[in-house]
Task: structure prediction
Amino acid sequence: MKSFLVLGGIMKEDKIKILFKQLKLTEEEEKKLSFLSLSKVKVNEKVGSWIFVLKSEKVLEVNDYKLLEEKLEIAFKDIKHVSICIEPVTKDNSLLKEYFCYALTKVKDILAFAPIFQDSLIEMDDSYYIETTNKA
Result:
């Protein structure tokens, strides 16, 4: 049985509730993520991918992002590639290092050298850069 989400003509507040229901979030999880709204779903039938674009008042905590990602993959397991994109209204780099480390764990299976960047994200003067060394 294929999972699907019908959104046409539904109010924005109701769209996120429908998504939360499909993700089988608990009441506590729904309450914690109540500041989110579902902006759109980008579907690329050619490659079989769906991207759920969520608007947020603030940057989502990494653990909340992981929760949504895991639940999304389970709820929409019949879709080849499913992902979420969070668009925060308020930009904030305070969680950048956590997200950077999480991103490295996600790509480690396809990029064997990813772990060398684990401690390479440097913050200086309200900017971030990745410091690497070229050792031959």
Observations:
- The longest strand covers residues 37-44.
- Residues 51 and 83 are 5 Å apart (CA to CA).
- The first helix runs from residue 12 to 23.
- The chain has a mean pLDDT of 82.
